[in-house]
Amino acid sequence: MWIEILCGLVIYRLFRRFFFDDGKILSVETSDSQALFSVASRLEKLYGGKSYVGLRIPDPDTGSRQNIDLVLVARGKAVVISVKNLAGFVSVNADGSWSCLSDHKRKTTEHHPNPIMQARMTVSILEEYIQRRGVTLPEGYFSCKVIVPNPKFCAIGSNQFPPEVITYEQWAHMKPESKNMLSDWFRGTFQRGTKEMKESIHQELNFILSTAPMWDRLELKGNKYVLGEFMEFKGRQEDIQALRNVRRSQVGRLIIQKTSMFGLAPSNLHVLYTLRDYRSEGASASEWMEMTVSSSTEILFLLQNSSKVRKFKLSSLVSMSLSV
């Protein structure tokens, strides 16, 4: 009897692995990336506008790219937001840096540079980048904030945190009508100028940010996101040959759709992709192209803030976005 049970379990696991593995979310660290997209989504719902997540803005002074968590753009106002997904007891030091005592069993203290100073620096770099793209913003158009969305965040001496910081408790109770939160961020921002001037700057800014360098992103099943850098495809030679045209210089986004054998086992994948067109946002239905590859095809992806390259089955993804 036990032999039959064990054999049944082995067969079940093999069945799940080979026939339904594409529904499994790979065990990767998505918490930080997920926090960015969750904050961006909630801000759009609360205050409208458009959020741009995972920007990588070129910095001529250092010759590198400056990471910006997200930028929220609404009518006549914009905010650069740093998301600190910290868990533990956090205090502010005399120099403005933060100390975070982990709430795990092994107590460790992490030190973080002054988040406000870092956010202000990214504002300056972003403003210079926008000016190089041909748009001069009114003084003070951008403000900056730091949001801590982790429910395990505990502020020690909350009155020591500057007003630019939105702690988890404040974030959890934020509402559209809140006058002491995001509404104050925008107060006094670009109040001068005609309606036409404001509308022009709003459109130009959205265009610049939508075409700015960003981290590549994977959308996994279960509404999970991963930021990083796409490296290459791995799989059968015929599948790699079919995917040869998927290069970041030509393709901006892929959408992965399943096919099945006898309505049961995933066999092949339909990959939809669109060629880049900087003249407009998105693509019409007629611009989407299609190919078919094996469900065993994988991609190599370098995770953000990591030196580790991870493998993802193409069948575990909903989409992949590539930046220039």
UniProtKB/TrEMBL annotation:
Pfam families: NERD. Residues 31-149 form the NERD domain. This is NERD domain-containing protein.
